[in-house]
UniProtKB/TrEMBL annotation:
This is Helix-turn-helix domain-containing protein. PANTHER family: DNA-BINDING PROTEIN, DNA-BINDING PROTEIN-RELATED. Residues 13-62 form the HTH cro/C1-type domain. It comes from the Bacteria. It holds the Pfam family HTH_26. SUPFAM superfamilies: lambda repressor-like DNA-binding domains. InterPro entries: Cro/C1-type_HTH, Lambda_DNA-bd_dom_sf. Gene3D superfamilies: lambda repressor-like DNA-binding domains.
């Protein structure tokens, strides 16, 4: 089952740019872009918590699993 990252969906819902999110969570745009495009191999829980706090959402709003 592939894991899908819906960061772009949450950014659109919150009308926030990747640059704004990067500033709020103190990460580089490159690292957030890798996460957004699904190219990241993993994400730390503290990073996920910071992203969720900035976007006022839960991890399940960002991370999903597609059935095979």
């Amino acid at each position: 089952m592939p894991i899908v990252i819906n960061l772009d969906v949450m950014l659109a819902k919150r009308k926030m740019s990747l640059t704004e999110l990067a500033e709020k969570v103190d990460l580089t745009i490159v690292n957030l872009s890798k996460l957004k495009t699904g190219k990241a191999k993993g994400v730390r829980f503290d990073t996920l918590k910071a992203i969720c706090n900035a976007l006022d959402c839960k991890p399940g709003d960002i991370i999903d699993i597609e059935p095979d």
